[in-house]
Design a protein that fits this description.
The complex is a heterodimer. Chain A is built from 5 helices and 5 strands; from the N terminus they run E-E-H-E-E-E-H-H-H-H. By secondary structure, chain A is an alpha+beta fold. Chain A has 2 domains: 75 residues, Ubiquitin-like (UB roll); 69 residues, DNA polymerase, domain 1 (Orthogonal Bundle), CATH 1.10.150.120. Chain A has a 5-stranded mixed beta sheet with strand order 2-1-5-3-4, with helices on both faces. In chain A, strand 1 and strand 2 form a beta hairpin. In chain A, helix 2 runs antiparallel to helix 5 and helix 3 crosses helix 5. The N and C termini of chain A lie far apart (47 Å). By secondary structure, chain B is α+β, with helices and mostly antiparallel strands. Chain B has 2 domains: 46 residues, 2-Layer Sandwich (Uridine Diphospho-n-acetylenolpyruvylglucosamine Reductase, domain 2); 205 residues, 2-Layer Sandwich (Uridine Diphospho-n-acetylenolpyruvylglucosamine Reductase, domain 3), CATH 3.30.465.10. Chain B has a 5-stranded antiparallel beta sheet with strand order 4-5-10-6-7. In chain B, a hairpin with a 2-residue loop joins strand 4 and strand 5. Chain B is globular. Classes of the chains: A alpha+beta, B alpha+beta. Chains A and B meet through strand 4 and helix 3 of A and strand 1, helix 2 and helix 6 of B.
Chain lengths: 155, 262
């Protein structure tokens, strides 16, 4: 099987994978990073969102071999020890999750949204969340959390 | 998904060589459609030739009155490009409506055009702006490119390298999104350039197409009032659980008017 090397959460990792192995399978099954979830497996729900070279992408629709040499950031790479990332802290503070299944993808997308937008209003947040599905919250608290984290992160 | 041999191409020439050497290869651009197709086992290539390393397939430039977008440029890059926003704002707007932010970070213009999904957004812009599609072998005019559902003028192993969009005097795009997938049920791109007015529709038929009657009506200027009462024929249009052919025909007129501020 072909070998693949990449950086995940700042650590150099490698593995042998099939051509068809998806990034999300490599993360979960080879590296044991099960924080990245598989929801729909059809590139719609966004639960598998990670950052690749600084951009939010759906890891269920990327081949592991595609990402030779890439820099990947997953939900496990956000907190520093016990100190949550400002977006995670905002989700906690604003009760932006219920069952939590979509949350890793939501948080990774949300960080992408904040990185991409100097100014951020509610309408933009809702529009930018188009690729993430949550079946519990009705999105309202997620939108509030992102708006709050935008203030903290953009200071 | 069935397994395949994965290969990375270092250049356009290397990509086409690897394609030819394999028994049944596919090019992989952003993979936003190809990987979904493979997951559903609708296709079973022997080899997948990844274009991610081909650096000269990425970039946007203004060249001789046209905006030239290289094939592996992502939707997000087009949507946020200062030069596209300045010269063809409707094209930047269209790119910003494709999929969602994560899809736009990966999906490419070349991949979208080669796929020719009946509901893809880009084909309407390519047709209405009278763009030219450059491949590793030749140039193809927009009017000759889209031939049917998932069917283009591309030959097996022919690779899109860039798309050249003449800068129009005026252009607009509007679409009616499917409430679930956000793909255009009908999208209309209207442009006035040195080749006159061109109106192109996506989502309604097997592939993007032009509406000569609408173009004639707008020849004097992009006034939405000139389109009032104009019908589009429902014959041959798509029918599915989201919209009947008759409804799509109705939406063509509404979207075309809205594309130019009506």
């Amino acid at each position: 099987m072909p070998a693949v090397k990449m950086t995940v959460n700042g650590k150099k990792v490698s593995g042998n994978v099939e051509g068809r192995t998806l990034l999300v399978q490599f993360l979960r099954e080879h590296l044991g990073l099960t924080g990245t979830h598989v929801g729909c497996d059809t590139s719609q729900c966004g639960a598998c969102t990670v950052h690749v070279n600084g951009r939010a992408m759906k890891s269920c629709t990327l081949l592991a071999l595609h990402l030779e040499g890439a820099d990947v950031l997953t939900i496990e790479g956000l907190a520093e020890g016990d100190k949550l990332h400002p977006m995670q802290e905002a989700f906690r503070e604003h009760h932006a999750l219920q069952c939590g299944f979509c949350t890793p993808g939501m948080v990774m997308s949300a960080i992408g949204i904040v990185n991409d937008h100097k100014d951020l209003d509610e309408k933009t947040i809702r529009h930018q969340l188009e690729g993430n599905i949550c079946r519990c919250t009705g999105y309202h608290n997620i939108v509030e959390a992102i708006a709050a984290a935008h203030k903290t992160m953009r200071g | 998904m069935y397994d395949f041999t994965y290969q990375r191409a270092s250049s356009v020439a290397d990509a086409t060589t690897k394609y030819k050497a394999a028994s049944d290869a596919r090019f992989l651009a952003g993979g936003m459609t190809l990987l979904a197709v493979l997951k559903q086992r609708l296709d079973q290539p022997s080899d997948v030739v990844d274009l991610a390393d081909v650096k000269d397939l990425v970039g946007i430039a203004e060249e001789g009155g046209a905006i030239v977008i290289r094939a592996m440029t992502t939707h997000n890059t087009v949507a946020t490009s200062d030069i596209v926003k300045k010269r063809i704002p409707a094209l930047a707007e269209l790119a910003g409506t494709i999929g969602d932010p994560m899809v736009r970070n990966r999906g490419t213009i070349g991949g979208s055009l080669a796929n020719s999904d009946p509901a893809a957004s880009y084909p309407s812009a390519v047709l209405a702006l009278n763009a030219t599609i450059h491949t590793d072998k030749r140039t193809i005019k927009a009017d000759d490119f889209f031939q049917g559902m998932f069917t283009t003028a591309l030959e097996a192993g022919e690779l899109i390298t860039k798309v050249s969009f003449p800068i129009p005097e005026q252009a607009g795009y509007e679409y009616f999104p499917n409430p679930a997938s956000r793909y255009p049920i009908v999208g209309a791109f209207v442009a006035k350039g040195k080749d006159g007015v061109r109106v192109a529709i996506t989502g309604a038929g097997p592939c993007a197409f032009r509406l000569p009657e609408y173009e004639k009506a707008l020849a004097g200027g992009l006034d939405p009032k000139k389109l009032e009462g104009l019908k589009a024929s429902a014959e041959g249009l798509n029918t599915d659980i989201h919209a009947s052919a008759e409804y799509r025909a109705h939406l063509i007129n509404v979207m075309a008017r809205r594309a130019i501020g009506g």
